[in-house]
Design a protein that fits this description.
Length: 488
């Protein structure tokens, strides 16, 4: 009887796993190619995300795998340190996530400013779109973000004028068009996931028309897996590599846990256990590192597809990993027919969706400070790098919070005779010290002053010293000494 009662969930989870598999397959391959690693490594990460992370507790309906959000960072790491070191970086990332989960630090990621996270994703999206548009045009992308953006108009114009580049441009543009139009097609057609349909159509067009475009290179699953060597592990002592590991850890953890919060809003099932989810992500990244594969995060696109397809338990995400494993083991040659411009088109579409244009307009109207942090974080990532951009965003968020927390009000009561009464309330910190002193120094120099500090919740050392110095200067003008009362 128990098995029969569980059967409806099993049927729903089985169907959902097929949907998630069809969504994940082109994205796993596309993210790997865009990251500058063999396509099979994207499948390895998807398999580990499904089977290893999927079996663990945390967020039961969230699906993990290679994410577009880490593409830029992985590409930079592979270019700077080499593919053999990538496994060591991912392994260290996984170990750090396990440690943070064991120390119950998962819930603290919820305290990170949403504007910083959205700015991070927007910056990643801009770099991803700019870089992948070069692939759509059949050209090599420049190294830095500003160079990518600056050279893009010329690259696209050159592709239009070059007859050899037109097939790649047409495939990429066609893929993006299919993804844009897919939500408006009949429901029967939309039963096939948009990314899969776009790649399938592009592959069919390439084969039937005999288009000369670059396709995915196939090495075989086992040939692509290279565990990190002891030399690669030893290289982690360098400062640059340690910074990359910290960036991987913070960004992958924040993206996964924010995704978990978003997935929780999509269903009424068990809520996410953030520390356990962080450990699940850490276990998955540890295994990915040992296999020399891409890092993983929870992916909102696959997770949303999982929920919308009717998944009820974690069996759906585990099964999706099994389907990826079977595909990689039995049908690897299929990858060789997939045109790279089509994968680039999918990532251009995915990257554009990371830029919250509509939300930014609303945020600007209601909370301009948060909108400013979002924009500066995104532009810093484009102009400098991922790690520095996130640090700039976090610094701005902390500064904004400190500024708002130091709200202070000065109320002056002057009855025309007797002492002038000044009442300070709020939080007196060094951030608002110029405003406080300007207001006090504007008081009449020839009148005694009573300064009431009882309304202050906080008075830091800098403000207290400055108020005492002002009181001495005011009293030195020949008036009665300033009387300060704290009420404490």
């Amino acid at each position: 009887m128990t098995a029969l009662r569980g059967l409806p969930h099993l049927k729903g989870d089985f169907a959902a796993s097929l949907v998630v598999f069809l969504v994940a397959l082109p994205l796993c391959v596309g993210v790997a190619v865009a990251s500058g690693v063999p396509a099979e490594l994207g499948l390895v990460t998807g398999i580990v995300g499904g089977i290893v992370t999927g079996l663990m507790r945390g967020s039961s309906l969230q699906v993990s795998g290679p994410a577009a959000g880490l593409t830029v960072l992985v590409f930079e790491a592979v270019r700077e340190f080499g593919l053999p070191v990538l496994g060591a970086i991912v392994l260290a990332t996984g170990v750090l996530q396990l440690l943070m989960g064991a120390l119950r630090l998962g819930r603290w990621f919820r305290a990170i400013s949403v504007s910083v996270v959205e700015g991070m994703l927007a910056g990643i999206g801009l770099v991803l779109v700019a870089g992948q548009l070069y692939s759509v045009a059949g050209q090599q992308a420049p190294a830095s973000g500003p160079e990518k953006l600056a050279g893009l108009p010329g690259a696209l114009a050159g592709a239009v004028a070059n007859t050899e580049a037109l097939p790649a441009l047409a495939l990429g543009a066609g893929t993006i068009a299919v993804l844009l139009l897919w939500p408006y097609l009949p429901r029967v057609v939309r039963a096939v996931p948009g990314p899969l349909a776009a790649v399938a159509l592009a592959t069919l067009a390439t084969t039937v028309l005999g288009l000369r475009v670059a396709t995915v290179e196939v090495r075989g699953l086992l040939d692509s897996v290279h565990p990190p060597s002891l030399d690669a592990l030893g290289e982690q002592a360098s400062v640059g590599l340690l910074g990359t590991i910290v960036a991987f850890t913070l960004i992958a953890s924040a993206e996964s846990l924010f995704s978990a919060a978003a997935v929780d809003r999509l269903h009424n099932g068990p809520r996410t256990e953030y520390n356990r989810e962080l450990m699940a992500q850490g276990a998955g990244n540890t295994v990915c590192g040992l296999l020399g594969a891409l890092p993983m995060t929870a992916v909102i696109v696959r997770s949303a597809a999982n929920v919308q397809a009717g998944a009820r338990t974690k069996a759906s995400r585990v099964l999706h990993g099994v389907w990826l494993l079977l595909f990689a083991a039995l049908l690897p040659s299929v990858l060789a027919h997939i045109p790279i411009p089509a994968l680039a088109g999918i990532l251009v579409y995915s990257g554009a969706r990371l830029v919250p244009v509509r939300q930014l307009v609303t945020l600007w109207r209601e909370h301009r400070g948060e909108a400013f942090i979002l924009v500066v974080t995104a532009l810093s990532i484009v102009a400098v790098s991922m790690f520095e951009g996130v640090l700039i965003g976090l610094a701005l968020a902390v500064a904004k919070t400190a500024w708002e927390a130091s709200h202070i009000r000065l109320e002056v009561v002057d009855k025309g005779a007797g002492p002038v009464q000044a009442h300070l309330s709020g939080n007196a910190t060094f951030l608002r010290l110029p405003k406080i002193l300007d207001s006090l120094e504007a008081l009449p120099q020839d009148r005694p002053v009573e300064l009431d500090l009882s309304g202050l919740h906080h008075l830091d050392h800098a403000c207290r010293t400055a108020l005492e110095n002002w009181a001495e200067r005011h009293s030195a003008a020949g008036t009665e000494p300033v009387r300060m009362t704290s009420g404490r």
